[in-house]
From TrEMBL, chain A:
It is a multi-pass membrane protein. Belongs to the binding-protein-dependent transport system permease family. Keywords: Membrane, Transmembrane, Transmembrane helix, Transport. Residues 21-203 form the ABC transmembrane type-1 domain. This is Osmoprotectant transport system permease protein. The keyword RNA-binding does not apply.
TrEMBL record, chain C:
Residues 224-278 are annotated as: Disordered. InterPro entries: ABC_transp_perm/SBD, MetI-like, MetI-like_sf. This is Osmoprotectant transport system permease protein. The chain crosses the membrane at residues 29-52, 152-172, 184-208. It comes from the Bacteria. Belongs to the binding-protein-dependent transport system permease family.
UniProtKB/TrEMBL annotation, chains D, E:
This is ABC-type quaternary amine transporter. Residues 2-237 form the ABC transporter domain. Pfam families: ABC_tran (PF00005). Its EC number is 7.6.2.9. It comes from Goodfellowiella coeruleoviolacea. Belongs to the ABC transporter superfamily. One of its GO terms (molecular function) is ATP hydrolysis activity. Keywords: ATP-binding, Nucleotide-binding, Transport. It is an enzyme of class 7 (translocase). InterPro entries: AAA+_ATPase, ABC_transporter-like_ATP-bd, ABC_transporter-like_CS, P-loop_NTPase.
Length: 222, 278, 278, 368, 368
């Protein structure tokens, strides 16, 4: 306890932790945003063209088996970014999160009641319009859950980037470890958890705002 | 002085007025990076620090792709990195050779007197059993398991065999002089490890450094490696002042302040820069 | 180019023998993963069954376990290492913690997902709580339960490379060592071996799943996939009936990320808890 | 007017859902498609607004080949109501109803205003507009579905088993509502159901389909019940068709008998050998006093023999027969439009009326 | 015999699902609980096998307080069938049916043998035993559900809307099946439905519940239709109750009239002023020749006026009335058990029979 207070007492340390935290936030959340933008069209494709399903889900699975560290390092070799660029981590995590989200998006779209889609079609919606204003809003509960899982696991994954120097709070782990100093590690772990909880709460709030209609039924027990 | 100013502007070059000081992922290097940064700041340069990057290969790639501007380096290893065939080992020869081998675009400044060499270390017990130098180690290598960084065998396995006739029973990957290596030696998982001369772990654990009479490990003076156009002259002068002030003992003390006393590299560096009026 | 390096590394017989050879690394990696997933199953499955069965505290427990997903494995492992002073314990604990949430969620969702009418009928015909759990809820939960385990296995295999960071073996070794010296060949070989191992283990678990999932449930799944005229007519403008062709191929892939669906079902918690008195 | 000309639909898997359908749906009336499950009713319906494309043949709406129209635009001009209402759960009731006007480019204000009018038209209180569909009962949802389909005032309305998901009592209410609406609106409505009762109740014309998408009979309901074209149709219209066909027999002028009545709260008077009908202040029938029953003091609701069903004068004879059959006295109670007592009929009288209404069948009238 | 004594169930959230229920379900017959949604039917049923515990009051099964029994043991002695059948999807049909015997400690062989017998009893082919529930149609699943509930030969059977998920035609089949089974087995069956038609069709006694878990009327179906206890029950049994109640009026001896008949393939003979009934070789009615119709050569199926519904002699009068009403000639065709022509009746004759069967209501007979 003492050592933690001592560790946190230092102004330089505080600044560093804050910097790391900010870095952690954008390294973990930017990919979620990008992944949603990618996963929605991909998920829609699998929903619409069922034969794509096996293939795309298979690819997503394989992507998910690649160790994150490997992606962090391979990406600059593949897309030619600077080796220390945060873009690498963002790109890698975007790929992961996309892989994670494709299926929930497809499932969520599949789960939109067929009769609602039929009704929309019958009223004269064009397909894209229908996707954006009917199917996607209805997919939010399932999609939102996917985004929550994705952001939480990203927040935990970012720290692996510490092994190549771009790890947000993860740097506290390597630093503490090399100095046999548990305080930074503990602080890093706790901050990561807190960050995840806060982000999760925020996502829940956003989701609740977007799905007021879904809870409307609960009140009357529908 | 207008020249210095324009030089500074030039130096900031691609980084948009920023000099980025990088460091490898061990304490000493991080402290050195902070010292460089503090010195540069005092010289009026706009600095950020990117500590804990990792192995040399990554660091140098980063210098080359302009992610970094300056890093603290070690003469012997750096030379070896740029020129695998090189055989020189003494301080001056190494430094001279290094200056000539640094690829264009990069440059080294003055080397410090301070040195942080690779060194093979054994426990007191092993030493007492008659192993106090690498010459004595050579014939008994078969008894021992060695622990070191992943790249050690590639670099040194042949060399140590050639110079001292040493072939270890097994070479195990631990880490680059970090806690894993130390713990492995302490637990007896391995009997010989590669550490660094400034490591505070050696004294703390009563480990014994093995003498290297045939100079297998080259001299390893601290030297700033930088992008030639990345730092102003004033900055370069400040870095040279740092090198002038650094001695091996001083360095060991700085490392120990961070590793043992758990001070922050930034604070330790600030104190050093202040004490030495840089 | 990278892949050429990788094949070169893989083709080098030296990388296939001894304690640092590929077979040994695969063996170590496999061992960590199997132990971790087995331990996590031993904790997660009974817990998930119990909360699913009683319906009490389920959402809370799964919610909590979901937030431990945010626990960074690297941080956890290094912290435990420092506290415990080494050994495989920290890595295994870190991996178990990683594996518990999907297994717990899968099991819980599996039990909760059992048709209310089926559970009701089981109760109505005089099954005791245990009989219901063993004879009805568990068999019907197996598809989602296995998805949870498979998903946990995938994550554990990919993450077990942290073992290398704390000085242990496994396929993280070539990954980290390759990274230190930017030896892409070695690095990519490590990554590819890990991915292959993951795919292989998943295939093995898929076979296992076929064995443990009662045949009747597979019939259900197939029946569900065969689009009923109601589903079908919902997409009437679809030319080319994709429904049938899609149904055949994806059984293998279905389970692997099926986990997401399972947990999502929970997180979205569309199901009302409570209901009749148990 | 909607014309099917030799329309066939064969799905990719080879199922022939509709087979050489030739049918003309008349404008301004309700036409019902009825038949067993899987006989191609939905498919036929959906070909009208091109939710399904025919394999061969032509469909004309008001003389225009539907294939000439851009599907979304075509669909905006054709209302569509389905079984589960298909309301958008994420939009309020009002916005659900305003959907098609908005799609057609109306301003939000105007669309909402129209939506509010329509809610009133289908008999929903305005407050419901702010709710979400999940907060409505099944019957209310169906009404919203109808309102939504009517929003752009389309001349044609397609309804696919719109009421089959609601319970029988509510369903009857919805059917009445639809008939009332149609009286006002005179749309061309195609209504799909598999319930023959609903079909004969609602349709001015009924098309009976048989398996394989073949049209078995196309006739007015009375004709269908009286003269099923074949055994399949006869089987499908089912038992009780004689009784049900009375729904189409108008009562004409019925000469009503009268019974002695007594108002609640009044003394019953001396016992008689006759049944006495008990009325309340509005002269609504409340029950019967059996012959020779003695009541101490004033007649109360409590001790009455409950009455049978009531027959409203002027409605089809089915109600009259049931009133007579269900009455404990054998006398069916006839009421006026406001539910007040008007007289009684016996089953025998009803039979006479039925007899009178029966067409004298001749060879010329055979078949369809 | 199952007795509810002042049974009340109040759920934790304060809902009173069953309110002071006093009811005696007689042994060996089917008793139906009917009422609108949420009126406490399911709750009442589930209190019998302690799936729900009453808040107050006592339930006795064959004189034994159910609270004295260990719930699982109690439930093994009471069959339970629910709407979705609730079959175990992971077990074969045979093993589903064998579940309760196995729970009760029978050997696997004996349990399976019994299960096979039961499949036969409920009219399912033995091969189905090897299938999984998902491979059966809805109706078949319901039969398996019944078989499973019967497996341990429990004296009491609880059925909660067992047939409501299947379509009307299959449903009628299942109802017939249940009645046939009950003829054989004489169980004490409590059957829950919200469909009054089903209730009066199946039940020997019907308990009508109203909202709030209150018993509104408990009577035999005929009584219920003829004398609903109050407006709620009258509304619930619905329109057509007079006609439907004829289902419970037995025909007694009907004196049949005869008409002239002609067999298909025979010459029609000279035109008469009467309707002529056309029969086939088995003397099954095929249609009518209208009065004064002239047929060239032999009578063929083609030109006939289709007949109305047929009335099988000895069955309730509802069928007789409908046969008369639906017949183009006004003469209802009566057939024997094998479907052969037996005679004709007029609606008027049926009315006479109904009149005769009507109880002379007196004050003493008033409803409760
Ligand atoms: N998209 C489709 N692909 C293949 N077959 C189809 C498709 N849609 C419907 N069918 C088949 O076409 C036939 C007619 O279907 P349709 O939905 O029109 O029947 P329906 O009369 O509406 O039946 P229901 O009363 O059950 O709604 C059925 O056999 C059905 O299985
Ligand atoms: N576990 C419970 N907790 C709280 N209220 C309940 C519970 N189960 C049932 N209820 C309420 O008790 C009342 C009676 O429910 P019950 O299921 O017995 O009705 P029912 O007559 O079977 O209706 P239905 O025809 O819809 O099946 C309803 O208002 C219902 O909402
Ligand atoms: Mg249909
Ligand atoms: Mg119920």
């Amino acid at each position: 306890m003492d050592s933690i207070l001592r560790y946190l007492g230092n102004a330089g340390t505080q600044r560093e932790i804050l910097d790391r935290l900010v870095e952690h936030v954008y390294l973990s959340l930017l990919p979620v945003v990008l992944a949603v933008l990618l996963a929605v069209p991909l998920g829609w494709c699998t929903h619409r063209f069922r034969w794509l399903r096996a293939g795309l889900f298979g690819v997503a699975n394989v992507v998910y088996t690649i160790p994150s560290l490997a992606l962090f390092v391979l990406i600059p070799a593949v897309i030619g970014t600077q080796i220390l660029s945060p873009v690498n981590v963002v790109a890698a995590l975007t790929i992961y999160t996309t892989a994670l989200l494709v299926r929930p998006v497809a499932d969520a779209l599949d789960a939109v009641p067929a009769h609602v889609v039929a009704a929309a079609t019958a009223m004269g919606y064009r397909p894209l319009h229908r996707l954006l204003t009917v199917e996607l809003p209805l997919a939010v509960p399932v999609l939102g859950a996917g985004v929550r899982v994705g952001s939480v696991s990203n927040i935990s994954l970012v720290s692996v980037g510490a092994l190549i120097g771009t790890g947000g709070l993860g740097v506290l782990f390597t630093d503490g470890f090399s100095r046999r100093y548990p305080a930074p590690i503990l602080v890093g772990v706790v901050l990561t958890l807190l960050l995840a909880l806060v982000v999760d709460r925020l996502l829940v709030l956003v989701q609740r705002r977007l799905t007021r209609w879904a809870r409307a039924g609960e009140v009357t027990g529908g | 002085s207008s020249e210095t100013l324009s030089g500074a502007n030039q130096g900031s070059g691609d980084q948009g007025g920023q000099v980025v000081v990088g460091s490898a992922d061990f304490t000493e290097n991080k402290v050195l990076a902070e010292i460089y940064a503090a010195a540069l700041r005092n010289a009026g340069v706009n600095v950020t620090v990117k500590p804990g990057i990792g192995a040399r290969d990554v660091v140098i790639r980063a210098l080359q792709d302009k992610s970094l501007t300056v890093v603290p380096e070690y003469t012997g290893n750096l030379l070896n990195y740029f020129d695998k065939t090189n055989t020189t080992t003494t301080s001056d020869e190494v430094y001279a050779a290094l200056k000539s081998k640094v690829p264009s675009g990069l440059a080294v400044l003055d080397q410090a007197q301070a040195e942080d060499k690779d060194v093979l270390v054994v426990t007191k017990q092993t030493a007492d059993s008659g192993v106090t130098s690498m010459t004595e180690l050579g014939p008994r290598c078969q008894e021992f398991v060695f622990g070191g960084a992943g790249e050690w065998p590639q670099r040194w396995a042949d060399k140590i065999k050639e110079l001292y006739g040493c072939t270890f029973k097994e070479i195990r990957t631990t880490d680059a002089g970090g806690p894993i290596t130390v713990d492995a030696l302490r637990n007896g998982d391995v009997q010989v490890v590669n550490l660094f001369t400034t490591s505070s772990d050696i004294k703390a654990n009563n480990f014994v450094e093995l003498a290297d009479p045939k100079n297998m490990y080259p001299a390893q003076h601290i030297v700033p490696l930088l992008r030639a156009d990345g730092v102003s002259d004033a900055g370069k002068a400040a870095l040279n002042k740092v090198s002038a002030a650094l001695t091996t003992d001083k360095l060991a003390e700085l490392v120990s302040k961070v590793d043992v006393n758990k001070e922050t590299p930034t604070d330790v560096a600030a104190a050093f820069v202040k004490d030495n009026n840089i | 180019m990278i892949f050429a390096d990788m094949f070169a590394w893989l083709a080098d017989p030296a990388n296939w023998t001894g304690p640092a050879g590929v077979p040994a690394r695969v063996g170590q990696h496999l061992l960590y993963c199997l132990i971790a997933v087995a331990a996590a199953s031993a904790i997660g499955v009974p817990l998930g069954l119990w909360v699913g069965h009683t319906g009490r505290g389920g959402l809370l427990l799964v919610g909590t376990s979901n937030s431990i997903r945010a626990l960074p494995t690297l941080g956890l492992v290094t912290l435990l290492y420092l506290v415990a002073g080494g050994g495989t314990g920290p890595v295994l604990v870190g991996l178990v913690v990683l594996a518990i949430p999907p297994i717990l969620a899968g099991t819980y969702a599996g039990v909760q997902d059992v048709d209310r009418g089926v559970v009701d009928a089981a109760r109505g015909m005089g099954m005791t709580g245990w009989q219901r759990l063993w004879q009805v809820e568990l068999p019907n939960a197996t598809p989602l339960l296995m998805s949870g385990i498979r998903s946990a296995m995938l994550q554990v295999v990919a993450t077990a490379s942290v073992a290398a960071y704390v000085g242990l073996g496994g396929l993280g070794r070539p990954l980290l060592d390759g990274l230190r010296v930017l030896d892409y060949g070695q690095f990519v070989a490590g990554a590819v071996l890990i991915a292959l191992l993951a795919v292989l283990l998943d295939a093995v678990l898929a076979v296992f799943q076929r064995v443990v999932v009662p045949h009747g449930l597979r019939v259900v799944a197939r029946a569900a996939k065969r689009p009923a005229s109601a589903n079908r007519s919902s997409q009437p403008e679809r030319t080319g009936d994709a429904g049938e062709s899609g149904a055949s191929g994806d059984t293998g892939a279905a389970g692997t990320t099926g986990e997401s669906a399972a947990e999502l079902a929970i997180m979205a918690s569309r199901r009302e808890t409570g209901g009749s008195e148990r | 007017m909607i014309e099917f000309r030799a329309v066939t639909k064969r799905f990719d898997d080879g199922t022939v859902a509709v087979n050489q359908l030739d049918l003309t749906v008349e404008a301004g009336i309700i036409t019902v498609f009825v038949g067993p499950s899987g006989c191609g009713k939905t498919t036929s319906l959906r070909m009208i607004n091109r939710m399904v494309e025919p394999t061969s043949g032509t469909i004309l709406v008001d003389g225009q080949d539907v294939r000439a129209a851009d599907p979304p635009r075509l669909r905006r001009g054709i209302g569509y109501v389905i079984q589960q209402a298909g309301l958008f759960p994420h939009r309020t009731v009002l916005d659900n109803v305003a959907t098609v006007p908005l799609l057609s480019g109306w301003s939000r204000g105007r669309a909402r205003h129209r939506a509010a009018e329509l809610l009133e038209l289908v008999g929903l209180p305005a407050e419901l507009g702010r709710r979400y569909p999940a907060q409505l009962s099944g019957g209310q949802q169906q009404r919203v579905g109808v309102a939504r389909a009517l929003a752009a005032d389309p001349p044609v309305l397609l309804m696919d088993e719109p009421f089959s998901a609601v319970d029988p009592v509510v369903r009857e209410g919805l059917q009445d509502e639809l008939l009332r609406l149609q009286d006002e609106l005179d749309k061309t409505i195609v209504f799909v159901t598999h319930d023959i009762d609903e079909a004969v109740r609602i349709g001015e014309k009924v098309a009976v389909f048989r398996e394989g998408g073949v049209l078995a009979q196309y006739a007015a309901p009375a004709e269908l019940l009286a003269r099923p074209a074949d055994d399949f149709v006869a089987g499908f219209v089912g038992r009780d068709r004689g009784y049900r066909s009375l729904s189409f027999v108008d009562s004409g002028e019925v000469a009503l008998d009268q019974v002695s009545t007594v108002a609640i709260g009044q003394p019953a008077g001396a016992p008689t050998a006759e049944w006495v009908l008990v009325l309340d202040e509005q002269r609504h029938p409340r029950g019967w006093l059996p012959p020779r029953s003695t009541v101490e003091g004033a007649v109360t609701e409590a001790g009455l023999t409950p009455g049978g069903s009531l027959y409203q004068a002027g409605t089809p004879l089915r109600g009259a027969l049931d009133a007579a059959l269900s009455s404990p006295s054998g006398l069916g109670v006839v009421v006026d439009e406001r539910g007040g007592y008007a007289g009684v009929v016996t089953a025998r009288q009803v039979l006479d009326l039925i007899e009178r209404a029966r067409p004298t069948a001749t060879g010329a009238e055979r078949g369809h």
